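Contributing: when you submit paired examples, paste them exactly as shown. First protein:
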Amino acid sequence: MSNPLKKTMVYLGLADEEEAYEEPTPQPAPRAGKSVEKPAAPITPIHRPAVVRQPAASPISEILTVHPKQYRDAQVIAENFRDGIPVIINLSQMSDADARRLIDFASGLSLGLYGRIERVTSKVFLLSPENVAVSGDGTVAQADPDAVPFAP
């Protein structure tokens, strides 16, 4: 098989081996003084099933609020989010550099587990798992100037 695209497709499992492999053609005998390259062995792709652990689709009974002080507090966030628990992260006690680093981590975590990350305020973020719907259009309600203030 001399087509590199076909070899790549077989390696990635996009084509069948029977279609791709041809009978090897006999190579001429090497001449004296020249090096001989051995033909590459055929590559057989490994088909591994994609196993993704999904949290149970049960009603939410808990929301975790975390006030991290250091980046190493990210482990608590990851463990709970991986178990399907929504996490509110309040970054007000962190330095700006560590806060950015933690949000980068949380973004990757939510992307990898098919969840969402949303900014609630400038220093508060919500990580919601895949099975949790968050409603709201993200706008702030404006106060009505003609409304009467609440009186007890």
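Second protein:
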Amino acid sequence: MAILVTGGAGYIGSHICVGLLNAGYEIVVLDNFSNSNPEALRRVSEITGKQFKKYQVDLVNKERVEQIFSEIKIDAVIHLAGLKAVGESVVVPLKYYQNNLTGTINLADAMKKYKVKKLVFSSSATVYGATDQIPIREDTPLGAVNPYGRTKQMIEDIFRDLYDSDSTWNIALLRYFNPIGSHNSGRIGEDPNGIPDNLMPYISQVAIGKLPYLNVFGNDYPTKDGTGLRDYIHVVDLAIGHLKALEKVQSTSGIGAYNLGTGRGYSVLEMVEAFEKASGKKVPYTIKDRRQGDAAICFADPTKAREQLGWEATRGINVMCEDTWRWQQNNPNGYEKLVKPITKSGTPVQRYAAGFLMSE
């Protein structure tokens, strides 16, 4: 049996794949590579010394998804695949609803058909919206304020309804806070397309000279330096959280939501200072007006994950910054865009990437 990882070539997915393989699991990865690169999966094999099945599949393609389940005995699913840029979701909301919701429903249909009822879902702290309840607990009222966050909240509701209809499902809903850092090998990390949407890759690209300066949106918040404060979690700690959640859904029935965060926050300028210390580089910045919808302070109460999953974050801000800088230095241009589809008349499209064959 194998663990199916949707979106396994992405930033978080690749680190989860390393964790699963090192823990002795067999894995199968589905990814459409719309916001990831096959090279990440080759490096997962390089880091772990293990091979695994990889398919270039879009979850919106219902027939293809079901074909995978018919070919491979799947034991459980870790579902990460989906569009994830908050700003883009505001500009093209239908794209996000179509992709994230349809893909998830297709996946759940295939799981139900083939009696795979163990699921770990990649949700987000964006489901809480602009709450004033700090620290944020899992029983904090939900109220996503952008299309991306609403897709996550809707998917959580879909899985709750699914569980209510059939209590033999075992489902963990993992609400991420702000993942940063990279594997300490420096071989896999965050490789955003275009200008980064998130703070840490933006800071690291300024430090290495790809971007001229950092925009800091607001310096008049009620924090010690006036800049917004967030809960940053090392991506490896986040990956370990998925393994703990997987153990939970494999051993007990039910559905539950869990915050994956550190339980404390750092301001934008604290992150800049820590990164300058880790890299030895100056990170110039300019102060801009606040962005609409940004909260002043946001961090998790991770007590439930500690008590029910046996998980807690252990890597601090210095390690997060050091590992990010190692990734950035070793991969100044991220994963190089390697390949294009190779087509032959009368045969299926095949993609040859980073030393392995991937079926369309």
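If you have annotations for the second protein, write them as plain sentences, like these:
The first strand starts at residue 2 and ends at 6.
The two ends are 23 Å apart (CA to CA).
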